[in-house]
Structures are given as structure tokens and as C-alpha cells.
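Example record for the data management plan.
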Amino acid sequence: MAKGDKFYFENFAATTELSKKAALYLVECLENYNPENIETMLKNMHEIEHSADKKKHEMNEALAKAFVTPVDREDLDMLSHNLDQVTDKIEEILQKFYIYNIQSVDPAVIEFAKKLVKSCELLCELMGEFENFKRSKKIHSIIVSLNDVEEECDNLYLTSIRELTKDRTDVLKVVSYVKIYDCFESCADACEHASECVGAVIMKNT
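Corresponding structural encoding:
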């Protein structure tokens, strides 16, 4: 592999590390939730998201200048976009707590956030293997594990929404939490989609 090619894989690895950082911070915020601190939480989360955006911009600049890339530049651009989406969607979850003025956190929300941490950890592991995708023996199993976590998130989404509808006295809470769980589900899907993109790129280039 050419020396300059390492940039792309290092960029992806750094991007997923930021996603994991955002997911861990989300868990921290929810486990110690205080609505009076929500603006500070959002500020800190946005700093992480902004750092991830910088990685995406660096990738865009490199692709614009590159003559030869380790895989098709369109594939690198697609993967960069999908990895960036994960951090964006984690930030969006916290934004929903602000928008809907959530005063307390349901336990299932924390459980969901911890599953997102697991997904991000697997994405980090996947990106660590991606540079050597032609020789790696682990990539397939990591992608399968990400699919498994996404299925767990699907099940948690269904049971959480069902529990919400049992409390029909607080319609505002139900509506607000449905929107929040939708964001969690969208983030879990984004993690799975990013891993599937890796699989597609590998299949195309081997």
C-alpha cells in the first residue's frame, strides 16, 4: 500500500473514534441527566460533532486532490459520509432532549445509548481492520456483530414504544419520547449502514 493511502484509513479510524466519544458522552449525559445542564451538554456534544465534520472536510480535500486512491474515490466519499452520519445522529438525540424539554430520563433510554456505544466500538474495530481488508480474518465477523446489535436495538425500540403507549395520561411525554426513540433507531441504522458500506467496498475490491 502506498504511503499516502494510509491517510484515508487513518481518517476513517479517527472519525469512528469521535463517534464512540460522542456515544460515551451521550451515556454520561443520560446517566447524570439534569435538564438545567442541557445547554452545556449540547455545547460539549457539538464540539465532538464539529471535530468529526473536520475529518470529513479533510477527506473531501484529499479526494479532490488525489490522482490515485486505494479504492474508488466514490466509495471513499460514500463511506466518509456514512461514518459522519453516525456522530450527527448521536448529536441529534441529545438535541431532542432539549427541543422537547425532557425533565427525566427513562431507563430504556440509557440502555439504548449503551447499545450505540457498542455499535460505535465495533465500528472502531472495523475501521482498524479496514486498511488490511484483503488479508483481514475479522472484518466479516465484526459486520455480523454490528448487525446483531442493530437487531437488539430494533427489539428495544419496539418494546420501549409499546411501554410508552401504556401511559396514555401524558400525551406530550409519549409524543416526545417516540421522537427520541426514532432518533435512537435511526442512529443504530446508521451504524449498521456504515458497516454494510464497508462490506460492499471490500466485495468490490477483492
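Summary line stored alongside the record: The mean pLDDT is 94.
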